[in-house]
């Protein structure tokens, strides 16, 4: 989808696609369909466990993947359960259900101390380049909470950019109502996507509390 220059977009909550913040930024794990729970089988020790909660325009999602046993019940596996947690916003245009962008803040694992921000944007982008996250949605001298995200890969479903969250970004996001994502399209046009911070303060607090508790 070609996005028009400096066009603002509305957001929609009710996330059904998950942004998995994989260690090392492996793009293949991003934008994966949330697996449906299945009854345990003989080849499984336990099924994936998920926690989901909505805070305004943000969704808190934590997923735990259990180890898989071998066919031999007497053979033990050394694989340990892994859990990742994040808060995500899905952004759509008016009248459309397909998202034009997603933004997530999260921890690749429960042991990780560094918060990571990941954006998924349309494939029509200029490479090389960066994605600009603006905490208050402004540019230039009036911008607050600025963060640059580096492109990691482009797949048919979108282009992925990520970065370790810099100091001050979260504080600005907690106070502002809207922010923005900016990038340059393949045609050389600057595209601006507006995002909402409604519910973000509560969502990020819940994220940190969940990670500390587990």
Known CATH architecture = Sandwich
Mean pLDDT: 77
Given helix and strand content, the structural type is mainly beta
Number of helical regions: 2
- Which range best describes the helical content: under 10%, 10-25%, 25-40%, 40-55%, 55-70% or over 70%? under 10%
Low-confidence stretches: 1-45, 68-73
**Biggest sheet details:** 11 strands, antiparallel
CATH fold type = Immunoglobulin-like
> How much of the polypeptide forms β-strand, as a percent range?
35-45%
CATH superfamily: Invasion associated locus B (IalB) protein
Query: For this structure, what is the CATH class?
Result: Mainly Beta
Distance N to C terminus: 40 Å
User: What's the overall geometry?
Assistant: globular
What's the alpha carbon Rg, rounded to whole Å? 18 Å
What letter string, H or E per element, gives the SSE order? EEEEEEEEEEEHEEH
Q: How many strand units?
A: 13
Structure description:
There is one protein chain. The chain has 214 residues and is mainly beta. The protein has a single domain, classed as Sandwich (Immunoglobulin-like), CATH 2.60.40.1880. It is built from 2 helices and 13 strands, in the order E-E-E-E-E-E-E-E-E-E-E-H-E-E-H. The protein has helices spanning 169-175, 200-213; strands spanning 10-12, 17-18, 32-33, 49-55, 58-65, 82-92, 99-107, 116-121, 130-134, 147-155, 158-164, 178-184, 190-196. Strands 1, 4, 5, 6, 7, 8, 9, 10, 11, 12 and 13 form an 11-stranded antiparallel sheet that branches. The protein has a two-stranded antiparallel ribbon with strand order 2-3. The longest helix is centred in the last third of the chain and has 14 residues, at 200-213. It is globular. The termini are far apart.
